[in-house]
Design brief:
Belongs to the class-I pyridoxal-phosphate-dependent aminotransferase family. The chain is an alpha/beta fold and 381 residues long. It folds into two domains: 119 residues, Alpha-Beta Complex (Aspartate Aminotransferase, domain 1), CATH 3.90.1150.10; 238 residues, Type I PLP-dependent aspartate aminotransferase-like (Major domain) (Aspartate Aminotransferase, domain 2, 3-Layer(aba) Sandwich). It has 15 helices and twelve strands. The protein is globular. Bound molecules: 4'-deoxy-4'-aminopyridoxal-5'-phosphate and glutamine (GLN).
Length: 381
């Protein structure tokens, strides 16, 4: 068969999680918690399953859940969105991104992504007949390189995909940078997907600069989030996308034929839990910052070097003082097989990785004992 995606193989997340399972390594590779979501949230699923909430949800998502999303957005970002015209619940952020890309990108269109970038973006663009233009973020802080961005924008640019807090680096886009972006694309018909799945995982007292709080950018944006990250239930694959009415209408044309709707009892449970526990999202930064700090404090005893991640549940670490002879892919395999800690190499998120990139990504969404055990092994490397 002549593949439509000849460059796509098995994702690094599958590869590394499988290797961790085979070797018995502690899995700090694929991003997911090794603890469960809140008990009340999980119990609510059982309740709704038994109450007969088991048939199709509305295509746009359960009204009770869309209402909770709208309320949360008002609380967090001061924007009043219309839950009927602007909020769509999806089976995961990945589906939301895929649908938004299919809704917007036409054959021959260009889509700007910032490398390193999440691995679902490019195949989504290619399936729509578009082409990704990769703009590398500037090291060491993974900041937007404005000259390169400006050079990358051309007559075929249709869409820019932002991701803040950024996977894999944890870097944040500031409000001033959103203003700068708005000025750069003001005169052009360029749309945005703002992947904000880690919106509530921002540390050190910094406020997340959401595109939802940016009037001008929101007018042309799909803002995507994931309940999986926010409520520690990545396996629920439930997310949402917020966009102005005309964009939401286009997205829904695609979503209704990709999956039609998200999973009904999960949506009921999330609506109940969000309504009873609006404080959950406000407590998340401290919850994950404590994990980041524990992990980083322990890692000080190792030969890895790093600066603390400003957001997400990922921590990058430079290993050049340990095995400068290994590429990051080789290092990840070696750490997993020989030292019992699975990691993600950063180069796989690049079209053209910087020469001599010596960074691996650790996921610190783990119980304290897991982090201690992993750090102990890493300090022996
Ligand atoms: N975008 C980014 C940057 C992510 O890290 C993830 C989670 N792996 C997703 C999107 C997808 O989220 P979901 O599991 O809800 O599809
Ligand atoms: N987003 C998760 C990560 O970056 C993985 C998601 C997946 O396995 N596709 O690790």
């Amino acid at each position: 068969i002549q593949s439509k995606l000849p460059n796509v193989g098995t994702t690094i997340f599958t590869t590394m999680s499988q290797l961790a399972a085979q070797t018995g390594a502690i899995n700090l590779s694929q991003g997911f918690p090794d603890f469960d979501g809140p008990q009340a949230l999980r119990e609510a699923v059982g309740r709704h399953v038994m109450a007969g909430h088991n048939q199709y949800a509305p295509m746009t998502g359960l009204p009770a859940l869309r209402e909770q999303v709208a309320q949360k957005i008002a609380r967090s970002y001061g924007r009043r969105v219309d839950m009927d015209a602007e909020v769509t619940v999806t089976p995961g952020a990945t589906e939301a991104i895929f649908c938004a890309v299919q809704a917007l990108v036409r054959p021959g269109d260009e889509v700007i992504v910032f490398d390193p970038c999440y691995d679902s973006y490019e195949p989504s663009v290619e399936l729509a007949g578009g082409r990704c233009v990769h703009v590398p973020l500037a090291l060491p802080d993974f900041a937007i390189d404005w000259q390169r961005l400006s050079d990358a924008i051309g007559p075929r640019t249709r869409l820019i995909i932002l991701n803040s807090p950024h996977n894999p680096s944890g870097a944040l886009i500031s409000r001033a940078e959103l203003d700068q972006l708005a000025a750069l694309i003001r005169e052009r018909e360029i749309y945005l997907i703002s992947d904000e799945v880690y919106e509530h995982l921002v540390f050190d007292g910094v406020a997340h600069a959401s595109v939802l709080a940016h009037e001008e950018l929101y007018a042309r944006a799909f803002v995507v989030s994931s309940f999986g990250k926010t409520y520690h239930v990545t396996g629920w694959k439930t997310g949402y996308v917020v966009a102005p009415p005309a964009l939401s209408a286009e997205l829904r044309k695609v979503h209704q034929f990709v999956t039609f709707c998200g999973i009904t009892p999960l949506q009921w449970a999330l609506a109940d839990y969000m309504s009873a526990h609006p404080e959950h999202v406000d407590e998340l930064p401290a919850f994950y910052q404590a994990k980041r700090d524990l992990f980083c404090d322990l890692l000080k005893g190792s030969r890895f070097t790093f600066t603390r991640s400003p957001g997400t549940y990922f921590q990058l670490a430079d290993y050049s003082a340990i095995r400068d002879d290994l590429s990051d892919v080789e290092m990840s395999l070696w750490l997993t097989r020989e030292h019992g800690v699975a990691t993600i190499p950063v180069s796989v998120f690049y079209q053209t990785p910087p020469k001599d990139l010596r960074l691996v990504r650790f996921c610190f969404a783990k119980r304290e004992e897991t982090l201690r055990q992993a750090a102990e092994r890493l300090c022996r490397v």
